[in-house]
Design brief:
Blueprint (H helix, E strand, L loop, with lengths): L5 E12 L2 E7 L2 E3 L3 E5 L6 H8 L7 E6 L2 E2 L5 H6 L2 E3 L12 H12 L10 H6 L1 H10 L15 H13 L5 E5 L7 H14 L4 E5 L3 H7 L2 E6 L2 E6 L1 H6 L1 H8 L5
Helix pairs in contact: 3-5, 3-6, 6-7
The chain binds adenosine-5'-diphosphate and magnesium ion (MG).
Adenosine-5'-diphosphate (ADP) binds next to strand 2 and helix 1.
Length: 252
């Protein structure tokens, strides 16, 4: 891990919606190999920022550099091909295929295989070994042959992460990985993110501050589209402006 290297940079990243500035002049620097969290109150611009990074939205102004390369104008698929991958949403998992079938398909896609999985069961078997490894990594071995639709919520998110890891990303973008989870699932996903980040960079939008404090090397706090503070949790958490804007006195 080359910690002092920056893998992702944004310069003056700005997004306006019909005159409303949702993200305003954001300069981010994400260190390679780190877990970096983007936090802030509702409406701060986190999701918009995330969508800009994953190319689901076009910035009004500013640049995004990944490994020194300007990716501002690239399409999401091209960015993914460079190793910057967004965790798929649940809807991207095929509900009636089993856990292992979902991961095998993701592996096949990663290898540029065609998408006609229904008639290439044999081809998919080639990926079986790697798929089982990934399923094991995310703690889903016991669920391998269960249709995705039958998984409990937290396990579905783990499956999403497995299908994302199938693309072997160098940098992983996670949008609220623990949203809607109970304590047990939160613990499990937290451990998983930690493990996954051992040889990767992770940037996540996350609401749960205990998850953020446990996992993050660096935190960027957004309010009203702007960066309010940045640094390790211990520093950011005692910043009076952050406490006022985000955590509220007596909370964080
Ligand atoms: N497509 C859109 N059109 C208009 N306004 C939007 C759009 N998306 C987000 N916004 C506004 O931008 C602000 C930031 O939203 P968002 O990025 O979702 O914040 P967060 O994820 O931090 O809660 C909010 O005020 C929201 O209403
Ligand atoms: Mg949001």
């Amino acid at each position: 891990m080359r910690e002092n290297e920056t893998i992702l940079v944004t310069e003056d990243l700005t997004k306006e919606f019909a005159g409303f500035i949702a993200v305003s002049g954001v300069n981010l620097r994400v260190a390679r190999g780190s877990i970096h969290a983007l936090i802030g109150p509702n409406g701060a611009g986190k999701t918009t920022c995330f969508n800009l990074l994953t190319k689901f939205l076009k910035p009004t102004r500013g640049r995004i550099l990944y490994k020194g390369r300007d990716i501002t104008a690239l399409a999401p698929a091209d960015v993914a091909r460079l190793g910057l991958v967004r965790s798929f949403q649940i809807s991207a998992v095929f509900p009636h295929l089993t856990v292992i079938e979902n991961v095998r398909i993701a592996l096949q896609r990663a290898r540029g295989g065609s998408f006609d999985f229904w008639r290439s069961r044999k081809v998919l078997d080639v990926y079986d070994g790697r798929a089982r490894e990934l399923i094991d990594d995310v703690g889903l071995s016991a669920f391998a042959d269960l249709p995705a639709v039958e998984l409990p919520y937290g396990r579905k998110r783990a499956l999403e992460i497995a299908t994302t890891l199938a693309l072997d990303p160098e940098m992983l973008l996670l949008d609220e990985p623990t949203a809607g989870m109970g304590h047990e699932d939160i613990d499990r996903i937290s451990h998983l993110i930690k493990r996954v980040a051992a040889d990767r960079t992770v940037l996540m939008v996350e609401h749960n501050l205990s998850v953020v404090s446990n996992l993050s090397d660096c935190i960027t706090v957004l309010t009203r589209g702007r960066v309010l503070a940045e640094g390790p949790y211990a520093e950011v958490a005692v910043n009076p402006e952050v406490r006022e804007a985000y955590m509220g006195t007596g909370h964080g």
